[in-house]
TrEMBL record:
Residue ranges occupied by any Glycosyl transferase family domain in the UniProt entry: 149-287
Any one biological process term the GO annotation gives: carbohydrate derivative metabolic process
GO molecular function: glycosyltransferase activity
Keywords: Transferase
Protein name per the record: Glycosyltransferase, family 1
Domain Glycosyltransferase subfamily 4-like N-terminal: 14-126
Database matches in InterPro entries: Glyco_trans_1, Glyco_trans_4-like_N
CDD domains attached to this UniProt entry: GT4_PimA-like
Alphabetical list of SUPFAM superfamilies matching this protein: UDP-Glycosyltransferase/glycogen phosphorylase
Lineage top rank: taxon: Bacteria
Length: 324
């Protein structure tokens, strides 16, 4: 089979990294990427890439050019990522190929995906409310991660875009009575507000925000982490939790994405509930070394590997292709 993956964004972020790893670790069929020319150089050099200029979902000319390109490629399946590309393909699709759409986050408007032949969600929560054929294929830990030696347990760690959905404001407000230092790594429009919140709560000696770092440098912060905290109000994954658990760093989280499949209830706080988050953090953060998560580490390493997820994706493609 010939399968085209389609992304059309201006930055190389989580979705693009996800697609890059699929295209470099999936060997069962011929995979091709169509992407915005401005991010093409960020993808692995081994990938067969067709570059296009970014265009809006209502651009007649953009869709005309894309339709012409797809006809030349002649794929069996087009796999879109996110609402924009899913909307575009739904509007130009022909009967010559099947359409698979992946939902990477928790979306309010999911109708846009329901014209696809198959919808994939990165968690069961991402698929809630969809009246269509769906399958959950969870995210995976980064395939090039190396196990950490000599962990130092210097600080608690939180990683993600500095946006309201990540709940870092809730996390900072909940840190008042905790002795462990907190390092938040990320960039985004909420940075100034979060720094002000740190000052207002007299936490400047205990809570630091560091700009987003490259994957290689992030490993140094993982090595120093006693625990990773997910404070998101909503989340498709979160993938960073899988990476931490693969590296045998304990995780506590709000109940978002696939976390309820991984962590016991006592390590999950109700999402968007500052009081519940604070209660959980005060109970576990300073004493996290007393709680053995070895069984969770082993579960994540086994069930959330990229090899496991590529087999699930191949099965989904094969089943879809077998249908008339």
């Amino acid at each position: 089979m010939k399968i085209v993956h389609f992304v059309l964004s201006d930055s190389f972020a989580g979705i693009e990294q996800h697609v890059d790893e699929v295209l470099t670790n999936f060997s069962s069929h011929k995979l091709i990427l169509i992407c915005n020319e401005s991010i093409a150089s960020y993808f692995d050099k081994s990938i067969n890439i067709y570059k296009v200029k970014n265009f809006g979902r209502r651009s007649f000319f953009g869709k005309y050019q894309l339709k012409k390109l797809i006809k030349d490629i002649d794929p069996d399946i087009i796999h879109t990522h996110g609402s924009k590309t899913s909307s575009i393909i739904s509007s130009i699709k022909t009967k010559n190929y099947k359409h698979v759409a992946t939902i990477h986050g928790v979306k309010k408007n999911k109708k846009i995906y329901e014209k696809a032949d198959l919808i994939i969600g990165v968690s069961d929560k991402a698929l809630e409310g969809i009246n269509h054929e769906t399958i959950c294929i969870n995210n995976w830990w980064h395939p090039k991660l190396k196990k950490i030696q000599n962990k130092k347990n210097k600080h608690a760690l939180a990683v993600g875009r500095l946006e309201k959905v990540k709940g870092f404001d809730l996390l900072i407000t909940s840190w008042k009575n905790i002795d462990t230092n907190l390092v938040i790594i990320g960039s985004g429009k909420e940075r100034n507000k979060l720094n002000e919140l740190i000052e207002q709560n007299n936490l400047s000696e205990k809570v630091k925000i560091i700009d987003a770092v490259k994957k290689e440098e992030l490993l140094n912060y993982y090595q120093d982490a006693s625990v990773l905290i997910i404070s998101s109000r909503d989340e498709g994954g979160p993938r960073v939790a899988l990476e931490a658990l693969y590296l045998e760093i304990p995780v506590i989280s709000t109940d978002v994405g696939h976390m309820s499949q991984i962590l016991p209830k006592e390590l999950l706080a109700e999402k968007n509930n500052q009081s519940a988050l604070q209660d959980m953090l005060e109970k576990y953060v300073d004493n996290i070394h007393l709680y053995n998560q070895k069984a969770i580490f082993n579960f994540v390493e086994r069930e959330f590997s990229i090899e496991e997820k590529m087999q699930e994706l191949n099965d989904a493609y094969s089943l879809l292709a077998s249908k008339s």
